[in-house]
Amino acid sequence: MKYIVPEFRMLRLVAMMVNLSEPNFTEEKAKVETHTNGDDTYLAYMVSTKRQPVARYYIWKKELVLDMDLFLLLENYFGENGMTYVIDWFNNEFEQDAETVTF
Protein backbone atom coordinates (compact mmCIF):
# COMPACT_ATOMS: atom_id res chain seq x y z
CA MET A 1 0.00 0.00 0.00
CA LYS A 2 1.34 3.42 -0.96
CA TYR A 3 0.75 6.49 1.21
CA ILE A 4 0.73 10.01 -0.13
CA VAL A 5 1.66 12.71 2.36
CA PRO A 6 0.60 16.26 1.43
CA GLU A 7 3.36 18.85 1.15
CA PHE A 8 2.04 20.99 4.03
CA ARG A 9 2.33 17.99 6.36
CA MET A 10 5.90 17.36 5.24
CA LEU A 11 6.75 21.00 5.97
CA ARG A 12 5.22 20.68 9.44
CA LEU A 13 7.25 17.51 10.00
CA VAL A 14 10.45 19.33 9.00
CA ALA A 15 9.52 22.15 11.40
CA MET A 16 9.02 19.65 14.22
CA MET A 17 12.35 17.92 13.49
CA VAL A 18 14.21 21.24 13.41
CA ASN A 19 12.47 22.32 16.60
CA LEU A 20 13.57 19.13 18.38
CA SER A 21 17.18 19.64 17.36
CA GLU A 22 17.42 23.45 17.41
CA PRO A 23 14.41 24.94 19.25
CA ASN A 24 15.69 28.51 18.81
CA PHE A 25 16.10 28.23 15.03
CA THR A 26 13.00 30.24 14.12
CA GLU A 27 12.47 33.64 12.56
CA GLU A 28 11.46 35.04 15.95
CA LYS A 29 14.32 33.63 18.03
CA ALA A 30 17.35 33.40 15.74
CA LYS A 31 19.68 36.37 15.45
CA VAL A 32 20.60 37.17 11.84
CA GLU A 33 24.02 38.63 11.04
CA THR A 34 25.12 39.80 7.60
CA HIS A 35 28.66 38.92 6.51
CA THR A 36 30.41 39.90 3.30
CA ASN A 37 33.86 39.79 1.77
CA GLY A 38 33.11 41.49 -1.52
CA ASP A 39 31.55 38.95 -3.86
CA ASP A 40 30.39 36.49 -1.21
CA THR A 41 27.56 37.76 1.01
CA TYR A 42 25.73 35.54 3.45
CA LEU A 43 23.32 35.72 6.35
CA ALA A 44 24.39 33.84 9.48
CA TYR A 45 21.55 32.52 11.66
CA MET A 46 22.76 32.46 15.26
CA VAL A 47 20.99 30.80 18.18
CA SER A 48 21.72 31.42 21.83
CA THR A 49 22.85 27.84 22.49
CA LYS A 50 25.73 27.79 19.96
CA ARG A 51 28.75 29.91 19.17
CA GLN A 52 28.69 28.94 15.50
CA PRO A 53 25.78 29.73 13.17
CA VAL A 54 23.17 27.02 12.88
CA ALA A 55 22.74 28.03 9.23
CA ARG A 56 24.24 30.32 6.63
CA TYR A 57 22.34 31.53 3.59
CA TYR A 58 24.49 32.65 0.68
CA ILE A 59 22.40 35.31 -1.01
CA TRP A 60 23.91 35.34 -4.52
CA LYS A 61 24.23 31.55 -4.79
CA LYS A 62 20.82 30.94 -3.15
CA GLU A 63 22.53 28.23 -1.09
CA LEU A 64 21.56 27.18 2.42
CA VAL A 65 24.41 25.76 4.50
CA LEU A 66 23.18 24.03 7.65
CA ASP A 67 25.11 23.01 10.74
CA MET A 68 26.47 19.54 9.96
CA ASP A 69 24.65 17.81 12.82
CA LEU A 70 21.32 19.33 11.83
CA PHE A 71 21.88 18.56 8.15
CA LEU A 72 22.74 14.92 8.83
CA LEU A 73 19.75 14.51 11.15
CA LEU A 74 17.38 15.85 8.49
CA GLU A 75 19.02 13.95 5.64
CA ASN A 76 18.92 10.68 7.58
CA TYR A 77 15.23 11.19 8.27
CA PHE A 78 14.00 12.59 4.94
CA GLY A 79 16.61 11.21 2.55
CA GLU A 80 18.45 13.04 -0.17
CA ASN A 81 15.32 13.72 -2.23
CA GLY A 82 13.34 14.87 0.82
CA MET A 83 15.76 17.70 1.50
CA THR A 84 13.67 19.83 -0.85
CA TYR A 85 11.16 20.02 2.02
CA VAL A 86 13.92 21.42 4.23
CA ILE A 87 14.62 24.12 1.63
CA ASP A 88 10.90 24.91 1.40
CA TRP A 89 10.60 25.07 5.19
CA PHE A 90 13.58 27.45 5.42
CA ASN A 91 12.23 29.68 2.65
CA ASN A 92 8.84 29.87 4.36
CA GLU A 93 10.24 30.41 7.85
CA PHE A 94 12.84 33.05 6.98
CA GLU A 95 11.32 34.52 3.80
CA GLN A 96 14.33 33.63 1.64
CA ASP A 97 14.77 32.04 -1.79
CA ALA A 98 17.19 29.13 -1.25
CA GLU A 99 17.52 26.58 -4.04
CA THR A 100 20.11 24.17 -2.62
CA VAL A 101 21.08 22.87 0.81
CA THR A 102 24.36 21.45 2.07
CA PHE A 103 26.48 21.38 5.24
- Fraction in beta strands: 15-25%
Could you spell the SSE succession in H and E letters? HEEEEHE
- Count of domains: 1
Please give the alpha-carbon distance between the first and last residues: 34 Å
**Number of helical segments with 4 or more residues:** 2
Mean pLDDT: 94
How many strands appear in the DSSP assignment?
Answer: 5
Parts with pLDDT < 50 across at least 5 consecutive residues: none
Widest sheet: strand ordering? 1-2-3-4-5
Query: What structural class results from the helix and strand content?
Result: alpha+beta
Rg on CA atoms, Å = 14 Å
Largest sheet descriptor: 5 strands, mixed
Helix content: 40-55%
Principal-axis shape? globular
Describe this structure in words.
- This protein is globular.
- It has helices spanning 7-21, 68-94, and strands spanning 31-36, 41-46, 55-58, 63-66, 100-102.
- It has one domain (7-102).
- It starts with 6 loop residues before the first helix and ends with a strand.
- Helix 1 (7-21) crosses helix 2.
- It is built from 2 helices and 5 strands, in the order H-E-E-E-E-H-E.
- A hairpin with a 4-residue loop joins strand 1 (31-36) and strand 2 (41-46).
- A 5-stranded mixed sheet has the order 1-2-3-4-5.
- The mean pLDDT is 94.
- 41% of the residues lie in helices and 22% in strands.
- It is of the alpha+beta class and 103 residues long.
